[in-house]
């Protein structure tokens, strides 16, 4: 029995709460994952995990073993990463999750450049606007935009993301331009359903915000759909500036209520507090922080 592989399998089962997800994470079969756990429990002469209708539940001994095993495996990864970094720079596998539209515009070209500069890195990059369970789905790192409230994550801010409210000239000509936050109640506002407070828009600084209840005939989890509706003259939207900066410059969209603009959101690199971050992930975060501090990014974010 390869003890390290067996311990990694136990960690994956513990973190995902599922033999199937753990097997997928490690690219092994479910039966192999089950055999490894059985062998580990037999060697230790103690039950580490139990199964019930809700999935896999750790025993007290399983919790203790997980905490120690995770630390040992993480320390081993750190040593390996440090030795690789001395010889060859950023190297090894990293699994990363990022928002779809922001990822397409900024993260994809940034990661491709990082891979070009560091040819020994192996990236597994997933782009989705859904709420991703980083620990449960086996991600090393996530990039998120917003005001973070998840205490199970450790976060490092990479950049600020401005929010802007915009409408097309045709929309404003037909329905008028809002002059105060309360005027938004009389406008057709496209709702971004992935937002924590989708129907409440925050206006003004965080020290004294105004929360305005908005409604409209479009609800979507797609920023691209919001922009399309706005360009078609069918909605007023609140959206990160990077989505629409070129439309504003071209005059096809016009900012409104600029004096009530809210404080920027944050772009964060996040990883689960339950998992020790490896040296290569820390190095990738440093590289991303440097990229997003460059003037070409700052002027459109």
Automatic annotation (TrEMBL):
Mind listing the UniProt keywords for this protein, alphabetically? DNA-binding, Transcription, Transcription regulation
Taxonomic superkingdom? Bacteria
> One biological-process term from Gene Ontology?
DNA-templated transcription
Which GO molecular function entries does the Swiss-Prot or TrEMBL record give?
Answer: DNA-binding transcription factor activity; sequence-specific DNA binding
Under the heading Pfam families, the entry gives:
HTH_1, LysR_substrate
Q: Start and end of every HTH lysR-type domain?
A: 1-59
Stated family: Belongs to the LysR transcriptional regulatory family.
What is the designated name of this protein?
LysR family transcriptional regulator
Q: Which organism is it from?
A: Paremcibacter congregatus
Q: What is the lineage of its organism?
A: Bacteria, Pseudomonadati, Pseudomonadota, Alphaproteobacteria, Emcibacterales
């Amino acid at each position: 029995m390869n003890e390290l592989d067996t311990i990694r399998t136990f960690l994956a089962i513990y973190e995902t709460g599922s033999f199937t997800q753990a097997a997928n994470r490690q690219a092994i079969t479910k039966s192999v994952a089950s055999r490894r756990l059985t062998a580990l429990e037999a060697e230790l002469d103690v039950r580490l995990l139990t199964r019930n209708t809700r999935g896999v539940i750790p025993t007290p001994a399983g919790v203790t073993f997980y905490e120690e095993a995770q630390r040992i495996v993480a320390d081993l990864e750190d040593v390996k990463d440090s030795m690789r970094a001395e010889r060859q720079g950023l190297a090894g596998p990293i699994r990363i999750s990022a928002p779809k539209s922001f990822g397409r515009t900024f993260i994809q070209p940034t990661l491709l450049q990082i891979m070009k500069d560091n040819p020994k890195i192996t990236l597994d990059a997933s782009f989705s606007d859904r709420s991703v369970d980083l620990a449960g789905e086996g991600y090393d790192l996530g990039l998120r935009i917003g005001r973070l409230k998840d205490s199970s994550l450790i976060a490092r801010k990479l950049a600020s993301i401005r929010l802007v409210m915009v409408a097309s000239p045709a929309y404003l000509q037909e329905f008028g331009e809002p002059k105060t936050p309360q005027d938004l109640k009389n406008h057709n506002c496209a709702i971004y359903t992935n937002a924590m407070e989708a129907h409440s828009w925050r206006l003004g600084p965080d020290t004294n915000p105004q929360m305005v209840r908005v409604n409209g005939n479009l609800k979507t989890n797609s920023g691209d759909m919001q922009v399309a509706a706005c360009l078609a003259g069918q909605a007023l939207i609140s959206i990160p500036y990077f989505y629409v900066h070129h439309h504003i410059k071209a005059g096809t969209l016009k900012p409104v209520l600029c004096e009530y603009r809210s404080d920027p959101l944050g772009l964060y690199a996040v990883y689960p507090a339950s998992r020790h971050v490896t040296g290569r992930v820390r190095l990738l975060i440093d590289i991303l922080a440097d990229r997003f501090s460059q003037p070409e990014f700052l002027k459109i974010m």
